[in-house]
C-alpha cells in the first residue's frame, strides 16, 4: 500500500485570541504543525499534504524550503470533510490516506503505525475513552459492538451523549472510496458543515468493517484550542521527554523542572539539577553535570564537564573536564579545548581557550585566542571594539595576566609573558618578560580634614 498523509490545519483557532494561526503556536519551541509533520515523516509516507487556510501565507512561510510537503488551500472552512476534499488533487500516488490534525501535536508514530497496519485495505479509526467526553464526536456501536457511525456532540441525542468512547478525528481510509464518500457528503447538520465523520456511516453501509485502535495515552489525541490547553500539553510533552532521558540514563533531580526545546544527545551518567533549559542541538558527553538554573542552547559539552548554577551557554563548545560558572556566560564561538576553568561573571565570545587555562572572575574575553596553561586575573577585559571594528587578541601559552588589566586589541601577549596588575596594554607584550603600565606609588604627609564643631 502507498500511504499518503493529509494534515488538516486550516482552522482559525479563534480561542487562541491571536494574530498568529493556531498551528504556528509553539510547543517545545516548535510550531504545533511541525510536531505533526515530524510524526508523519516518521512513517515514511509517499506524500504529505497540508491543508491550510487562515493565515495560510504565514503557515507556508514557516515551512518554506521543506520540499517533501505539498500544500492545499481551503479558502473557506466549511468542515473537516470539505478540508480533506481540498487535499485530494494533491495526493498523486497514495492508495491509503491517513488524516492527522495540525493542532494535535502529541500523536506518536507507533500509534499511527498500528492504525495503518490494521487497516491495509479497510477503514481505520483512532478512538479514546474519556471520563468527560463533552465536545467530542461520539462513537456509536451496534448491539454486536460494531462501529456504526460517529455523531457530533451538537447532533447527538441524550443517549448518544452518554457514550464515553470518542472520535479523535484520526482516520486511515482507502483513497478510491474516500473520493466517492466525500463527494456524497451533505452539510445538513447542526453546524452546517461537511463532516468528515459522516464518511464512516457510508463505509459501514458499503460493508466495511471499521478497525478501531486506541493510543497508549489519551494525550496523544488531545488538541489545542486555547492557551490553557497549549500549556497543559507543553507540560505533558516535557514530562514525556524527561522520562525518555531518565530511561536513557540521565539523572534529573526533578523531572517536572526541566525544559527540552530541541534535540539532546548524551552519554552515561549525566546529572541535571532543577530549572535547566536545553534548546536546539545539545550534545552532552559522559558524566556531564549541570547545576540549577542553566540555559544551554546549541552547545557541545565534553565528558565530565561541570557547569555550575546560573550559567548561559550558546553556540559554544566545551572540552572535557572543564568547569564553568557559577554565573558564567559563554556566547557564540566560545571554544574551550578542555580542563578550562571559567568562573563567575565571566563572559566569553568568539574565543578559543586552550587546555588548562583559567578565567576565573569578572572578565570579558572577546575575539581572543588563548593558549594552554594561561591564567587570566580577575577583572581582565579584552578591549576588542574601537567603536567601528572588532580586533583580535592573542595570548600565548603559559602567559599570566594580572588582575584588572585592559588588553587593547589588536594585541599579542607572548608565551610565558606576565602582565602586571592594573595595566592598560596597547602594544605587544614580549615572551618571558614582565610588562606593565602603572603610575608610581607615592606616600605623602597628609592630614585628613575633620568636621568643624
Ligand atoms: C472534530 C470531529 C469530532 C472529533 C474532534 C476531535 C468532525 C466533524 N468532527 O470535531 O468527531 O471528536 O474533531 O478533536 O470532524 N479543520 C479544517 N478545515 C475545516 C474545519 C476544520 O482544516 O473546515 C481542521 C481544524 O483546523 C482542526 C480540525 O480540522 O485542526 C478539527 O476541526 P474542528 O472544527 O475543531 O473539529 P471539532 O468540531 O473539534
Ligand atoms: Ca467544528
Polypeptide structure, described:
The protein has 453 residues and is of the alpha/beta class. It has two domains: 3-221, Spore Coat Polysaccharide Biosynthesis Protein SpsA, Chain A; 227-435, UDP N-Acetylglucosamine Acyltransferase, domain 1, CATH 2.160.10. 17% of the residues lie in helices and 33% in strands. It is built from eight helices and 38 strands. The strands form six sheets. Strands 13, 15, 17, 19, 20, 22, 23, 25, 26, 28, 29, 32 and 35 form a 13-stranded parallel sheet that branches. Helix 2 (56-62) links the parallel strand 4 and strand 5 (69-73). The longest helix has 21 residues, at 227-247. The radius of gyration is 31 Å and the shape is elongated. Bound molecules: uridine-diphosphate-N-acetylglucosamine (UD1) and calcium ion (CA). Residues 8-11, 51, 74, 77-80, 82-83, 101-103, 136-137, 150, 152, 166-169, 195-197, 223 line the site of uridine-diphosphate-N-acetylglucosamine.
Amino acid at each position: 500500500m502507498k500511504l499518503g498523509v493529509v494534515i488538516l490545519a486550516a482552522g482559525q483557532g479563534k480561542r487562541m485570541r491571536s494574530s498568529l494561526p493556531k498551528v504556528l503556536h509553539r510547543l517545545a519551541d516548535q510550531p504545533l504543525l511541525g510536531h505533526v509533520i515530524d510524526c508523519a515523516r516518521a512513517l515514511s509516507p509517499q506524500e504529505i499534504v497540508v491543508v491550510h487556510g487562515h493565515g495560510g501565507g504565514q503557515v507556508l512561510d514557516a515551512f518554506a524550503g521543506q520540499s517533501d510537503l505539498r500544500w492545499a488551500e481551503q479558502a473557506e472552512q466549511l468542515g473537516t470533510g470539505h478540508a480533506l476534499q481540498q487535499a485530494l488533487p494533491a495526493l498523486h500516488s497514495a492508495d491509503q490516506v491517513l488524516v492527522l490534525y495540525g493542532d494535535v501535536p502529541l500523536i506518536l508514530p507507533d500509534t499511527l503505525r498500528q492504525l495503518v497496519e490494521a487497516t491495509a485495505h479497510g477503514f481505520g479509526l483512532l478512538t479514546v475513552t474519556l471520563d468527560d467526553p463533552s465536545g467530542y464526536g461520539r462513537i456509536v456501536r451496534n448491539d454486536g459492538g460494531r462501529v456504526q457511525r460517529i455523531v457530533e456532540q451538537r447532533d447527538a441525542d441524550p443517549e448518544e451523549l452518554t457514550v464515553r468512547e470518542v472520535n479523535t478525528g484520526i482516520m486511515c481510509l482507502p483513497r478510491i472510496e474516500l473520493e466517492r464518500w466525500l463527494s456524497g457528503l451533505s452539510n445538513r447538520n447542526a453546524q452546517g458543515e461537511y463532516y468528515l465523520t459522516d464518511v464512516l456511516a457510508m463505509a459501514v453501509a458499503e460493508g466495511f468493517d471499521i478497525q478501531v485502535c486506541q493510543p497508549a495515552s489519551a494525550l496523544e489525541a488531545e488538541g489545542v484550542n486555547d492557551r490553557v490547553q497549549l500549556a497543559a500539553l507543553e507540560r505533558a510533552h516535557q514530562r514525556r521527554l524527561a522520562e525518555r532521558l531518565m530511561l536513557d540514563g540521565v539523572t534529573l533531580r526533578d523531572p517536572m523542572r526541566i525544559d527540552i526545546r530541541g534535540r539532546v544527545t548524551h552519554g552515561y551518567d549525566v546529572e541535571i539539577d532543577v530549572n535547566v533549559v536545553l534548546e536546539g542541538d545539545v550534545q552532552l558527553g559522559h558524566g556531564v553535570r549541570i547545576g540549577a538554573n542553566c540555559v544551554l542552547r546549541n552547545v557541545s559539552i565534553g565528558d565530565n564537564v561541570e557547569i555550575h548554577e546560573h550559567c548561559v551557554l550558546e553556540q559554544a563548545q566545551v572540552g572535557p573536564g572543564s568547569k564553568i560558572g557559577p554565573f558564567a556566560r559563554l556566547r557564540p564561538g566560545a571554544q574551550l579545548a578542555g580542563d578550562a576553568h571559567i568562573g563567575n561573571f565571566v563572559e566569553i565570545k568568539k574565543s578559543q581557550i586552550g587546555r588548562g587555562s583559567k578565567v576565573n572572575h569578572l572578565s570579558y574575553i572577546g575575539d581572543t585566542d588563548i593558549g594552554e596553561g594561561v591564567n587570566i586575573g580577575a577583572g581582565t577585559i579584552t578591549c576588542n571594539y574601537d567603536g567601528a571594528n572588532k580586533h583580535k587578541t592573542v595570548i600565548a601559552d603559559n602567559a599570566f595576566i594580572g588582575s584588572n588589566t585592559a588588553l587593547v586589541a589588536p594585541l599579542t601577549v607572548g608565551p610565558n609573558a606576565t602582565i602586571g596588575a592594573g595595566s592598560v596594554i596597547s602594544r605587544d607584550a614580549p615572551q618571558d618578560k614582565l610588562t606593565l603600565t602603572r603610575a608610581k606609588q607615592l606616600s605623602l604627609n597628609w592630614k585628613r580634614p575633620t568636621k568643624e564643631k
